Amino acid sequence: MFKILIGCFFSVVILSISGCTQTNLQTVPKAYLTYELKIPLSVYSYPGSLETKQLLNILHSGEKVAMFCLVKADPLGISINGFTLSGVKIFELSFNRQGLKAKSFIPLNQAPAPEQILLDCILGLYPEETLKSALSDEVELFSKEHVRLVKYHGKTVRSFSYDDEDHLSYVECPEFDYSIKIKSIK
Q1: How far apart, in Å, are the Cα atoms of 90 and each of 4, 108, 155?
Q2: Does residue 93 contact residue 114 with C-beta atoms inside 8 Å?
Q3: The model's pTM
């Protein structure tokens, strides 16, 4: 009897999660760099190959959330998968020449839009030369030692910090009131 109850419980959980799946496709996605500036995401091609597993500790408007992320990027595009700490998939994003495809598996009320997640990954992980050619003249990019700043009209709108091995370790966005501590997992 106990095995039947456990089996029914897991079936309900799996059906409820799969019932929450939502897919979204944008051919030319745009993301908010600031409240007033929405920029097109035109860079998807990463020169070379990148694969990183990360533990994210997110602080947004006083609320803390932790999750795992798997990021893969290459000349064909970028993919980002988010998981709960227990391993349940939360979302998956892929961005290539066809556009941005986002799929969420669990509805999250406070989750940022897929294009916002993608913007931070691209600004923080892609080489400076690749980014500068894609950003408008009003957006400035500065990299020095273990810090990268993105400025709009002289005001810092994103700040990225890197550890001694050049892994992204911290993201701060004061305008949208969030910060992310990142620990690379090998």
Answers
A1: 27, 9, 33
A2: yes
A3: 0.82
What SS3 class is residue 126?
A: coil
Residue 85 has pLDDT above 60, yes or no: yes
R_g of the chain computed on alpha carbons: 18
In terms of Cα–Cα distance, which of 107, 111, 110, 131 is closest to 119?
131
Phi, psi of 183 (to 5 degrees): -120, 120
The secondary element (H helix, E strand) that includes residue 4 is helix 2-19
Model pLDDT, residue 44: 83
Q: Which of 107, 111, 115, 123 is nearest to 173 (CA)?
A: 123
Query: Residue holding tokens 């500036």?
Result: 37
What pLDDT sits at residue 11?
A: 32
Decide: residue 46, CB within 10 A, 0-12 exposed, 13-18 middle, 19+ buried.
buried
Here the tokens at position 7 are 């089996």
Q: Which residues contact 30 (CB under 8 A, 6 or more apart)?
A: 38, 39, 40, 41, 115
Return the residue matching tokens 């996605």: 29
pLDDT at 8 over 60: no
> Which amino acid does the sequence have at 155?
K
Residue 14 has pLDDT above 70, yes or no: no
Question: Residue 161's closest CA among 143, 148, 177, 179?
Answer: 148
